[in-house]
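Supplementary Text 2. Reproducibility record for the structural model of the 216-residue chain.

All settings were left at their defaults, and a single model was retained for analysis rather than an ensemble. We include the record here because the model underlies the residue-level annotations in Supplementary Table 4.
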Amino acid sequence: MKKYIALTVAAVAFASVSQAQLKDGVYAGIDLGYSYHTAQTQTVAPGTPAVDPKANASGFVTGVHFGYMAKVMEDWMWDVAMNVAYDTASVKVFSDANAVALYNPRGSLGITGRFGRMINACTAVFAGVGFDYSSATVRHLAGLKRINYAVNVLSIVPEVGVRGDLANNWTWTVTAGYKITLTADPKTLEGDRNVGYQFKKNPATFIAKVGVSYHF
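Retained model, structure tokens:
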């Protein structure tokens, strides 16, 4: 929550230098940001007790987006956007003397709906919720062996943010969101040496992004 507040305050302060007005309509742009992932797995090998490693890792996020924004009665706005993103994070969900397993979020496709209030003619604060589909992998490394297991992850993503005008048809956006995993399929992954990886606690991710958009 402190991260959300800090990002929002900084963005509103920056917005005070802009003099133009936000433009309704279709837009497209790029994003760059930071991600922080947490996960907990249950790893079971025949004849041995289960172990519950907890893991976290951070990464960089980059992507593209497009959407539609409209103002309502001057004081309010709504927005629908789609985004395609790539995450560089790699979370070590299992490790012993013989093998390592890495959870890699990688590519994702999402859609988000937002509703907010205009704080002046050129700046809006908003809250939104989205759904995100990620094509992730768990990569098992044992000696010279490299085995990738696909994991289809569906998440719900609440977020808060600020949008402001830059110049002409350009705008900037700052968002902070939290990915809550609904499903991680398959939840059980059979690894080398007959070791099974199972998400005891599904992955969750904090994401903060800065974007620049062009309004057509």
